[in-house]
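assembly run, all chains below
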Amino acid sequence: MYAAASLVPVVLLGLVLFAGYRTEANNHGLARARTEASLLATTAVAPQLGGVSLDKGLPEADVAEMTAISHRIIDEGRLLRFRLRNTRGEVVFSEDGSGFGGEIEDEVLDAARGEVVSLLTRVNSDVGDNGPKGVRAVEVYMPMYAANKQILGVLEVYVPYEPIAADISAGLNRLALQLSIGLGVLYVVLTLVSFSLTRRLRREGRHNHFLARHDPLTSLPNRVLFRQSAEEAVAAAVKDNRRCAVAVIDLDRFKEVNDTLGHVNGDALLVELALRVKEHAADRFFVARLGGDEFGVIIPDIDDAAAGDELWELRRVLEQDVQVSGLPLSVQASIGFAIAQEDGDDADELIQYADVAMYHAKKNHLGVARYDRSQDRYDAAKLALVTELRQAIEQDQLVLHFQPKIATDSGGVIAVEALVRWQHPVAGLMPPDAFLPVAEQTDLIDPLTTWVLNAALHQLRTWGDDAAGLAMAVNISARSLIRNDFADEVLTALREADVAPERLLLEITETALVADPQRAARILARLYREGVRVSIDDFGKGQTSLGYLSQLALYELKIDKSFVLDREDPTNAAIISSVIQLGHNLGLQVVAEGVETTETFAWLCAAGCDVAQGFLFARPMPAAAMSEWLRDRAALIPSQPAPLVN
Ligand code: C2E
Ligand code: CA
Ligand code: CA
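ok done. output:
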């Protein structure tokens, strides 16, 4: 195609060059004839005339000599005709006696005025010529001059054209040959170049096509190809009335691996997992990397139950240890899936459903979850909430309320707990339960924790004397606690607010420790060394082993309010009592939250509980109300503040 196209300019170039040369060669032929005539006029004829004008005819004395000269030249074959004309154009001498008294043509008069005229013609084709037309010749009219530049007359000759033509055509043949060879080579080179270019372009095109549809790290198909394959698989399933599963896999805690071990190792982990999934999938199903730690799977011709089995199997494959930089790592995955025809027959819709199911699986630690409509309502709302909450943190729409913690022996306040709320521009003041779960499922929990930590410490500073000797209790989510730089962030916040580490109490739920016990223990130990205190919140709900608990660097146990609120229940009462004992045995301060009645308070005091918190003393309240409350309380119970360190 390209080769054929490049033939056109090459041939055109050849034709143009050839035509140009032919014109050039013809001109050259005429010039050669003129030179011949001019030579003759100046060397042979004019000297013979001896400066005498031909207007009175050729002198009788010169006729014999001129006849001899002309015959000799014609015999030699240099000329075909030889005539002399006067300045009026009339023939005064003719080698063969022809042409006398004939019509005078314009070119003759031009020559008589000093112009050299030459034209290609045939013998006997002039007006007045008799006889059959002869061979081709160049007819030249050459003015002849005297020494004083006066025109004596005109020499008219026919120079034979055949030898010139032979020269020209030999030249043209040579040129044609050279052109053919040169252009042929050019054509071959062009063809080769265009061929190799075409091949390279095609190769690059194929490569680009691959890149656009594959993930560069794992070489797995990417989201684009996943969508396309899902569309095809779903369309095929619908056509043949079969089922087909679309699944989304998300690795749990991959971000932590990335943060702790670095991107290089994170990448290595992904590559290894991708390889594993690809091997496991073989050609039974389609696997893609959707981005980050998210993978997509399409299993054709499979029903609900079989898809579940297959995905559980895949999850087991993913969970096996991976060696990264010599360390055995194990990751868990949350998998959600939807079934074509049953859940919908649009690929995009099914992918979205699988995504929803995956979040559901992750949130509820289900491992693998099949999509069901009830997961969805929550999710659409959740998505909107995430966006709004992100802005809320940036725009300082969060506020802290504070609730005091009271020492049971003195009745003095020993700490206040910061509890976050969202001052939503439309919905009003939103409780933490309405947005914390969403924050914890996304990265939003990190900026939220940072915000709360800084705001709480800053508030403690602002209260100044009203809060003298009080500790600030701040709730920390599991995800934030095991973040790599958490301890550093806490210390920085303390330094910036200029608050002593001993005045910060971090409340961490028992479940937070279960997520990654070793890591949590390490971070708590570091905080302990720096002087920061830690409380286990909602204690009694989880199943922390006592052995583990005893190893942690803790300060306080906070009994979950569900036991306290329902203290009448003998089981709960027994639990509260044993937690108090356990805490004291471990050398910890024990707090009861959810104290609403004086009876409960009295009971807790009798049971030996150290600290109480609840609506009985104060509901959580804004900062200004809190400082006022603290002042009133100080006046009421002058014995406080209780000593901070016991
Ligand atoms: P929590 O840490 O167990 O906080 C105590 C919760 O019990 C608070 O609810 C408080 O208002 C409520 N409460 C206090 N006294 C009583 C009482 O006598 N009776 C009853 N029925 N309830 C009482 P709140 O403020 O809605 O907070 C709910 C949870 O949200 C907190 O439970 C905590 O886990 C979480 N949270 C609050 N603020 C933050 C925060 O800044 N960061 C994190 N990560 N979590 C927070
Ligand atoms: Ca708390
Ligand atoms: Ca609690």
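The longest helix spans residues 162-213.

Residues 412 and 637 are 7 Å apart (CA to CA).

not gonna interpret more than that til we talk
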